[in-house]
């Protein structure tokens, strides 16, 4: 009986001790859970705030994305238009290159023609110089011939005058030799009139 009582007391104290230990452990666990709850509440608030910030950022990024999408569409349209313009410019440049080649060919031909014309010009200049020299020689000859003509004209005139004088003298001699004195004055007057008419 005594042993049984001791056993019950021992068990009671053991159970009591165990319950106190569990109670203390529960208190510690409760404090730990309260601290964890506080930390989780704080973390939840932070996450809620961050989530709100992310929502605002998401809205802002959505607006920016829509603007960028519109800008992208406009840029794509511009690129398409610029590609078309570039293609047109390439075609125009190709045509201009062809025209340039044609003009270069024409210029080469014109340069050849100009060289030929320059040669012809030099030849004509030489010929003109020769002709000018000939003209000067001909002018000199003409002047000499003109002088000769003048001299011959004067000589012929002198010869005509002398011939007329000789004819008058012969006529007078014939009259004097063959006609009576009363006819001589009539023939002199006639001869003088004829000479005046001839002159």
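^ structure tokens above, recovered residues below v
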């Amino acid at each position: 009986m005594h042993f049984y009582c001791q056993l019950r007391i021992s068990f009671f104290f053991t159970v009591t001790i165990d319950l106190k230990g569990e109670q203390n452990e529960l208190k510690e666990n409760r404090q730990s859970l309260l601290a964890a709850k506080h930390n989780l509440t704080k973390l939840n608030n932070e996450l809620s705030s961050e989530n709100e910030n992310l929502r605002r950022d998401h809205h802002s990024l959505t607006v920016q994305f829509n603007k960028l999408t519109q800008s992208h569409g406009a840029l794509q349209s511009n690129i398409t238009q610029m590609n078309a313009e570039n293609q047109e410019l390439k075609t125009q440049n190709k045509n201009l290159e062809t025209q340039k080649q044609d003009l270069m060919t024409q210029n080469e031909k014109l340069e050849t023609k100009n060289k030929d014309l320059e040669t012809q010009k030099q030849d004509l200049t030489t010929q003109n110089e020769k002709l000018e020299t000939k003209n000067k020689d001909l002018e000199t000859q003409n002047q000499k011939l003109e002088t000769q003509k003048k001299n011959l004209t004067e000589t012929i005139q002198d010869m005509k005058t002398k011939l007329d004088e000789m004819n008058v003298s012969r006529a007078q001699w014939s009259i004097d030799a063959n006609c009576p004195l009363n006819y001589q004055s009539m023939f002199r007057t006639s001869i003088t009139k004829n000479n005046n008419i001839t002159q």
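The two ends are 217 Å apart (CA to CA).
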